[in-house]
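Submission sheet (multi-component)
Chains listed below:
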Amino acid sequence: MSAVSSAAMLEAEKLRGGLSRRKLLDKAFVVIGLSIMLGCLAILAVLFIDLVRDGAPRFGWDFLTNFASRRATSAGILAAWVGTSLIMLVTAVCAVPIGVMAAIYLEEYAPKNWFTAIVEINVTNLAGVPSIVYGLLALGLLVHQFDLGQSILAAGLTLALLILPIVIVATRESIRSVPNAIREAAYGLGATRWEVTKDHVLPYSTGGILTGMILGLSRAIGETAPIITIGALSFIAFLPDSPIKSEFPFVSFQWLHDPFTAMPIQMFNWVSRPDQAFQANAAAAGAILLCMTLAMNGVAIFIRYRFRKKINW
Amino acid sequence: MKLWHKFSLSMVLGGLATALVPQYAAAQSVIKIDGSSTVFPIAEAVAEEFQIAKKGKVRVTVGIAGTGGGFKRFCRGETDISNASRPILKEEMETCRAAGIKYMELPVAFDALTVVINPSNTWVKSLTVADLKKMWEPTAQGRVSKWKQVRSEWPDQPLMLFGPGADSGTFDYFTEAVNGKAKASRGDFTASEDDNTLVQGVENNKNALGYFGYAYYTAHKDKLRAVAIDNGKGKQVTPSIEAVIDGTYTPLSRPLFIYVRDTAAQRPEVVEFIKFVLNEGAELTKEVGYVPLPPQAYQTALKHFTDKKMGTVFGGTPEVGVTIESLLAREGKL
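Outcome: structure written.
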């Protein structure tokens, strides 16, 4: 009897020892994970502070409202930030609906066979194609074949192509995470496939879809190579046509066909200038580009938050 | 759910609208310029001032597709003016001819390729083209790695070379002038398309030697030393605005050009722009760190423009060490 209980105690002792070791490991992992994350944030912070410090003399209203100039102190980024914003608009409007629809089809509708397997592999591979390749494709196809020219539309479509795989992959992941029980319950109540997708799958996966959109657009906003390839300009001292008109039909899409420049191009141009005063401009533009990315992500996070609040099942 | 509907609806509508817009011709006249990034600061300065002078009635855009990339667009008729840091080549003339594009070649400024060393380099007083050839020729690759191997009186120190990458017009001109053939160069040197990287390389390395455009040297005068180059007539000349203008800094000074399409030159705003370039260009050129042409060269170029003198004076082959006067006196060829 006593032998049995002492054996049990020994066993429990062993278990307890193992438990404390495992708890220690658990804590160690938390510490490692946290320090890696803080390390990444610190790198971003150092980068941002460095940019802000270098660019400090240039910050101000003038910098945002002036066009580029040969004089570093009066040169601004008006054409660049307007160009980048409009390109991002075109990119988001094109890439997100198409990407989400493609992902819905692949996840909810497509039969699982060799064809969809090939499509899947290709979509994943496309996400790894260097951006310059998209630039060359766009130059041949969009700029020359479809005759879009060196326009905001061509640039936006190029970047949309570039981020399409990212959006598709993220959306699929997020759709896949919707529990199957929910689909089955909806089908059980007589819902059609589209109703299930529209009313249950999509709202539930919106958070993940928006994360994919953030990742995609954050990549697109900093791309230089593809838009240089399709012929973005470096000096342009006028803005694209206004989208809102005072006479009928009040909206105009002429701006889509206007020439443009973008933030990364303006920065690249300033960094390679002989006059060292332009380095401050490049740093200031870099800090503003970072802010634009953060603002864009902020909007997406806000929308995600709104959607999450509405989910109640 | 409502938000989702609004969201998706606006996305779809936006997409549709995007696809359905007709392409309008630009309402306002735009002068389109593209080409060499070396000429870009000049073109940008002129475009900026011209738009101010015209009070925004004429729009000018400038790109940096590179000399070759610029000619590609130019010969497709996409641009009105092409910036070039070297004369148009045979194949490019061919493309333009096939597309029925005629053009005028106008020199706008000089660029002096500057050979620089670290200020603490005590042994180099001047260099001859033969010295440079010993360092840069293709056969020097892997073989010439010490200063001593260039001239025996120089120290037994490693020779660190910095130069622009193979896509640059500066590289083309330097190799042509030094090695006798464009793009013929050793490959084992630190190459960068960004000249500021070259500046840093030479600045931080006592044994370094590099070359790039004069504007990059003037911006870093305090950290670099420009080497005097033997001009072949027994005279060692340090690059300077005066030496380039009077033609003594040879063979490393080169003219920069703009090419104007003849059909574009029939538009009054383009004519005004070209006149602006040739009249105000000298001041603006100096301001952005380049060397202006002698005043009479601008006058001759202006006369050629108004007389519609077509074609290039080079016949499609690069040349080094030609003076601006002799260039302007030549007959053009399309």
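Remark: Residues 1-58 of chain A form one domain.
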